[in-house]
Every structure is written in C-alpha cells, then in structure tokens.
Amino acid sequence: MHGGAAGDEKVASRAARDRERYLACLAELSTRLLRSRDPGELLALAVESLREASGAERCYAFENHLGADGSRRATLRAESCAPGVPLALGRPETIDAPLHVLDRPELARGEPFHGPADAFPPDVAARLAAQGLRELALLPIQAEAGWWGTLGLATYRADVHFDEAEIALLRTAANAIGAALERAHQDQALRESEARFRRIAEQAFDLISECDARGRFLYASPSHEAVLGVAAESLVGQYALERVHPDDREETRRTFAAAHPDGTARMLFRMRHEDGSWRWIEAIGRFQAGRSSGPQAVIIGRDVTERRRLDEERARLEQAMDQARDVIVIWDRAGRVVYVNAAWERDVGMTRSVACGRSIHEFTWRSATAEHTEEIGRALREESAWKGRIRGRRNELVDTSITAVRDAGGCIRYFISVSRDVTREAELEVQLRQQQKLEAIGTLATGVAHDFNNLLTGVLGYAELLEKDEVEPETLREAIGVIGQAARRGTELTSQLLRFSPRAPRASGLVDLHDVVAEVVALTARTFPRNVEVRTALAAPRSTVSGDAGQLQQVLLNLVLNARDAMPAGGTVSIETALPGEGWEEIALRVRDGGVGIDEALRERIFEPFFTTKPREKGTGLGLAVAYGIVESHGGSIRVDSAPGAGATFEVRLPLCEGTAPRADARRLAVATGAGRVLVVDDEPTVRRVARRMLERLGYEACEAADGDEALLRVGEAGRPFDLVLLDLDMPNVDGRACLLGLQRIAPDLPVVLSTGLPAGELPAALLARVAGILPKPYALASLGNAVAQALTRRATSG
Within 13 Å of residue 642, how many CA atoms lie on the same side as its CB? Predict the structure, then answer.
C-alpha cells in the first residue's frame, strides 16, 4: 500500500519492502495458525497480524450464515483497529446483519474485491462515506468447500489504496485462514466425538475395551469394575486372556488370533471376578490395523451370566415338561400359543414350531361340552383358574386345569393348561366303587343276617312251643311277649337300615332342638342306671331347625347311649347346645362323656355301618352310622373329638331356621277309630289277617283280597260298596300299580291307601298323586288307624 506517483526506483524499493513485510507476516501467521485449535483465537491472530502488515486502520472477519427468514446474513467474528479507531465487534448492528457491503458477486464467486467507497452501490457508498472510509479490500475465506466468510481491510486516508500485489498476498492469507478454520473445525469435531465416546464408554453398562495385537488392555471402561470387581484403570497393560476361564481360553485366543484387520468376531467366554466367581461374557470385537504391527481390537462385551442362568433353568424346565406325560400348553393374553411340550406334539401330531404363534382355540376344547366351554371362557375373562374333566379329541376323559401366570407386579402374562388322560383311571375308579359297594353289601348282609337270625330264633322257638295242644298260660304270655319284642326289634332294625339310605323318607317341619333334648333326657331318666347322670346346658339362644323330629331324637339317643356304654363304671353325660360363633346360622349340639375314649385308628372308622367295638350282644354297629346319615340328610355335620382315657365329645351342627316349632306333645297322635267297609289287598296271608283284625278292633268292617284280580272283582261286585282299599304295592300277577289303575276306572272316588315296605322317596310322584295316603310296613295299630281315618276324612271333606 503506497501514496501518489514517484520515481520508478523508489516505487520498486517500497514494493519490495511491502512484499517482504507481507511474506514475513504470512510465515509467522502460518506458524501460529498451525498451533491454534480454537477458531475464535485463530481469527483474532489473523486480523491482528494482517492489519499490522498492511498498515490498514481496520482489519476484520465476518462469518456468513442464513437468517431465520432464509436471507443471507453475516456476523462479525474478529476485529483489529488502529489506535483511535473505534471497535465494532459485539455491536448489535454487526450481529446477524444483512450482507450490504459484503454482498459482492466477486466474493460469491470466490474472487477478491478492492476499491474506493464510491465503487459500491449508492446507498452503501453513502454509509461508507459517512464513516470516513476511503478504500476497502474484501477477500473471500473458503472453508469446507464453501464461502465461509469475508476478510476485510479498510483505510480512512485519501492517499492510500491496495494494489494487485498486496491483494494477491492477502488472498494467500485468506486461503491460509480458511484452511486453518477447516482444520480447527475438524479437530473440534474430533474432540467432541472423542468426548462423546468417552462419556458413552464411561456411562455404558457394557464392557468397552481396546486391546493391542498381543491381547493387552489399552483401555477398559469403568463398567469393568461393576462386572469384574476390579478398577478399570488397573486392567490397562494386563493380558485379557489371564482373566478368561482356562476352559475357554484357547478358543478365545484362537478367535482373537484368526481375526483379520477390518473384520469382526463374536466370542462367548467366562471371566474371573475378583471374588473368585466366573461371569459369562458375550462379546463382539472389531479389529483394525493399529499404529504398530498387527491388529488392534475394540471389544464390546456384555455380562450374560444371569441370562445364561435363566436360559439353563428354562432349558431344564422345558426338558422336565417335555418328559412329562401331561399335555402342557402356554399361551399369551392375545390367545397366541407360545409353548407346547412333547406330549402335546405326540397327542396332536404337530410340531412345536408350527403350533407356536397360532390361536389356542384351534387346538383345545373342541370336544368339550357347551357348558364346559362357557365355564372356561368365563374363567379366562375373569382371570381366574379353572379345573374340570372334559372329553378329548378321541373321546377320552381328560382332567384339565387352566391357571394364569402373573408377573412380579401381579399382571397376567400367560395362561397355562395342563391336561391328563384319565380314561383308565376313571375305569379303575368305577371298578373300585363297585367293589366297595359289594364289600359294603357283604358287611351289611352279615350284620343284618346276624341280628335277624337272633330275632327269628326266639320267634320260631316260641311258635313251635305254641303249636302244642297244651300251653301253660305263663308260657303263652311269655311267648307273646318275646314274639312282640322280636317284631319290634326287627322293625327298629329295618327302620335303621332305611334311615341309613340317602333316599330314606324324612318328614320335614320345624323342630325345636331343645324339645328333642328334653324328650331324650326324659326317656333316659327311666332307663339309665343310677350311676349314670345326664346333665343339660342348653345355652343356644335359638334352637329351631328344619327336619324330622323322630330322626333327630334317634340321633341324640344313639349318642347318649354310646356315652353311657363308654362309662361302664358310671359317670356324667353332658348334653349342650350353643352357637359356634357370632353371626353363625348353625346350632351346635354336643354330647360329652368321661369314658374310656377312642383311639385314633377307631375314630377313622367310627361312622362306618356295622363297625362296632361292642360285643355282638351289645350292639349292631348301626347306631352312629344311622346318626351320620340322618345328620347329613338334614344338611348338617357330625364329628368326634376324643383320646384314649380322656372321654369323647360328639358335636352335631345343624342349620338354624326362622319360626317357632310346635310343642312336642302336639306331635303325638292318638289312635283314631272309625266306621266303614275296608278291603285289605295283600298277597301275604299273615298281613291280610293281621290288618283285618286291627281294622275290626278299630271299628271297621274288613274284607280280604289275595291279589289284584280278586280286589278288582270284589270292588266291581254289586251290593254294598267299599269305603276304602288298603292296597299292597308288590304282588304277583296284577301288582299294586295295575290294580290301582283298575280301581280308579271302576270306582274313581274310592280312596286307596298304599301299604309298602319301600321308602316313600323311592316311589314315583305320579303314583303318590293317585293315592289317598301311604302306610309304611311294618305298621302298628295306631299308624293303621290314623292312615285310614285321615283318608276317609279327606274323602268326606272333598265330597
């Protein structure tokens, strides 16, 4: 930069000095730019050096960028001013400002521009003139293959301008600045990348390491300490294979050695923890040519010890499930099958790989009933378990259970179904039940035969004595008493057998259990020995139950008799009532004794029919079995608490009912007499004669018929009609059922009382609807009289 014209020699000398000054500046600037890595520091050095070398009053650098609206903008990044020239760096007008002066087409093409202020457009020239600026030199800074910004030099003296030689040197400087900026940006990006990698490596859970060609650690991430229990920095310089399990070392070494530069390898090995345990590591290594001979490797590993443990457990579980004979299926909440075991594959004939992913409904419950299908569907919707027996694909019986599998938070993840073919077991169960029935029948027959043989022995013996021509009055009375007693005992035994049956007839009504206790206590007071005392403690505030008063009385009587027999030397029998607990709708009836007690082996069989510890002459073994059957038929329960030498407590629990039971004396019926003509129809002559005699004793005129045919003839005869027919159910030829139909055709209004030894519960409802009453066999005089009187009364009332 120089003044007006002068001699050629003087001009040449000045130009040489300017050139030397620029070259020295460029050399020093290049050196300083190479050392600088900060773009801001780099630009500050450049504008300071170039201002001093050029003699300009101002040197600056603008960076180009796009504004928010897409227009080209510029921001002042560095500035150097001569003394007295104010700085513009940091002023608002130099930040994100329109290009204005810098918006020259030459700069956009990568070419410099220099000239006086009036070389710019009028509006720009006016602003430059207002600042006193005389001449400018603008040089584009190219960096990263583009126009990064502009290097500018300005002078305020009218006699100074920039020549082409200076512009060429300044252009070289601008290019050096651009190259330095590009290098600084690359270095900064590299440093940021390294810092980012460092942050990732130091915060990663995975093991990140770098090894040299000999397998020594060059770098180990901090995660090594969490996995191996050793500080990461202490691993640097150690051979990685020294921590690998001896059994895995050779394979790992071979994999590492065989890796070629720029290749990858996968490895699975165990590494030693500082506590002596081993951790399974799954790793992938990236190999590359190092700075020294041989490859280097960056290895990223993951601790898979827990995953391998779970995999091994799952494998063991699957192996066990595959060896199970049960069919096992697991499916997810969407109904997709996720697992089937080997038994399922054999049963369905489909492989696991084909089944998994398909709908569970394609394979299961196709043979189930509609009721079972609905139950299973409802259980799955309600997320509850289901268990039942269904028919399988081949009509086999299958026990199936379906259970929800929940995660740690209680949410259902899967459903599991376990099914087993129990066809053979079901057949064996039927055979076993049949065998048990036969054994029970045998036991029952033995007990009944024993007791009835005892009764018949007395009856036959006295009957033979009575057949003699001369019988003493005393012997006659004794025979009548024994025969009557045997008959009553036989009736009682038959009644017990019927009550033991689940279909035994049972009257239904409200019963006050305290009245039942009072009746039993009154009975035992007249029959028990003096050394046995019966005490009561009736504490239950409510005592009304529903059932048969006679049967409940028999239950309590059997328990009291057992208690008496358990105390051969005497003692106290306590009868108590109480409510088991607050809010309970049950009453507890307890019978306690201080007798010999019952050992555990006997307690398990105490309610079995015909099982007894008493001598044969003392009991049949039906008492507790009958009591058990009666209590069960009343919807209750019975249990015993006893130990040898500690007495026994029998507790009966029955459901309570609302209402008031009739008094005990109101239930006793008197023997009813009457008048009328009754036809007795029975194939057994003894029964006909006894019934005729009883009816005559009660005031009736009685006739006999030996079977159904004779009965129909007698009723159809002209003359005096019958008022009632007492009809046996089971007879040869025309039985009671056929006879009843014939009687109703001949005399529709004639009442018929059915007499049978079968329980009423076994008679069809249609048959019961056709008769005026039921008279169970055997019957006493009172029962016969009441049945006949009630039937005739109903006829009179309806007529």
Answer: 27
